[in-house]
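Co-fold these.
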Amino acid sequence: METVYKKPRLLNDVTMHYCPGCGHSLVHKLVAEVLEEMGVEERAVGICPVGCAVFAYRYVDIDWIEAAHGRAPACASAVKRLWPDHLVFTYQGDGDLACIGTGETIQALNRGENIAVIFINNAIYGMTGGQMAPTTLMGQKTSTCPYGRQADLHGFPLHITDIAATLEGTCYVTRQAVNNVANVARTKRAIRQAFQNSLDRKGASFVEVVSTCSAGWKMTPEQANQWMADNMLPYYPLGDLKVNGEKK
Amino acid sequence: MLLKGNEAIAHSAIRNGCDGFFGYPITPQSEVLETLAVLKPWETTGMVVLQSESELASINMVYAGGATGKCVMTSSSSPGVALMQEGISYMAACEIPGLIVSVQRGGPGLGTIQPSQSDYRQAVYGGGNGDYRVIVLAPNSVQEMADSVGEAFRLMFKWRMPVMILSDGAIGQMMEKVVLPPFKPRRTDEEVRQQCPWAINGLGLLSRKPNFVSSLELDAAVMEKRNRAMQEKYRAIEAEEVLYEEYMLDDAEYAIVAYGSSSRISMGAIDQLREKGVKVGMLRPKTLWPFPEQRIGELGRQCHALLTVEINEGQMVRDVRYAVAGQCPVEFFGHSGGVMPSPEEVVDKMESIINNR
Ligand SMILES: Cc1ncc(C[n+]2csc(CCOP(=O)(O)OP(=O)(O)O)c2C)c(N)n1
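Predicted complex below.
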């Protein structure tokens, strides 16, 4: 019999703590697949965030540093400078990357650090139980904006990926999703491109993955996928924002 | 060579095979980064030098760089070191080596840019969360600034934890003659792999289990086990790594306990008092943690009274009292950060202690 699909070797057999339908587990698998295909395990360092992906090191069998909340891009900057031939990437949620760690994110990208940033945008704080995130949509309900996000109380969603594309230090900025098979394949290509850029020292790469949080959104996985397509994708449209240093 | 204390730190870091410096400007320590920028070690030894966006970023760069097994450091002054406390706690929790040079200025808040010792508690007790310790070295000359870098690198890898050099604006800024250490090459990747099998750098991954550092442990019993193991390490450090210097203590009836800048002032005071026939000496802690508790306890038995001289409102005095455990009175003399105590003031204070006995 011909094998048409197999689990990547770098993704171990530990049961993941993620909720059913969560985008994190899918993106973990893509990271494992890409690392394996590139054959760079022995010179790869992942920086995991504080957030639901805090345990990424339990699932993808490479060396990981768990950063303090928001500081992953600073960590990655140091690692890449100290190990210039390594592939160095961060894996962060919206609260981590675009709220408490906004400074580190923008500064590392703007310095043109040769790192890849994978940014899971689920428009909510998953790990701490569904509070408002910097990317929470206007009108979206969370436990800290129970009547919906409103401008006068909470300000506006932060377009961090659009900001990333304006920075001279970034070479590749893209927004993807993992809500269907075609998008999963595109996300994988994006991750591979970002990782290659880190190895080739082309500058900073930024891959946003628009994702779901069925538990935080209080929906079934199917509902969450639909809500994402209906509400998030119009606001966070998919596609490349910058390729080879050229804005799209 | 004639160098400022801060410049000596920079020269010594390069010569001790440092792999990376990450820092943010703040008076009175900016010369460390400035000197490195002039010396351009990335062209000679390959040492990385990066001006970070904040002290928060600096310490997390040190955290991650140390986690990969590299020899890395930062330096800052009081408000900057305050910002680093979270990262220092993470380094201690994950048992990551790294050097923090703290060139103290007066506080609280922005305070003054003049020398001070008011971050003794910040250094020795830490401002980060959790039951952790940092080894604290306290140089009192430019020569000791230079020497303490190599010592700090040795200690941070031996014990796998953050080490701090606690200096102040006076030692950082003053110029003195100094003999720099000989050049030691940076470790090769292969040496890092052999010496730091715990490190996160991918080296040899295919023939070992993956490494990770994490301070998160949701199982409280496991967390306690981990903390207890760390406490055992701290007890071993207290037994092995205490450093201090004695000055005229053999026949002393009174003793001053002082470190860093205030120990230099105190020595002047002791010379004046000795000329007047007062039997006084000094114990100078060279490590503030571990603290020379046992030796100070002995002095408490030997002397009529002890005096701490500090450039703060009385911080180390509590540790000295704890060590003396009521065997004799322990007094304090100091000025708030920025105002330096003079030897004459210390003489007056000691004489009033003697006269009021
Ligand atoms: C300094 C600090 N502040 C707050 C927290 C609590 N905290 C943990 S995760 C988190 C938010 C995570 O949300 P996000 O980054 O969006 O990731 P997700 O869990 O949704 O994947 C917060 C606020 C912390 N661990 N550290």
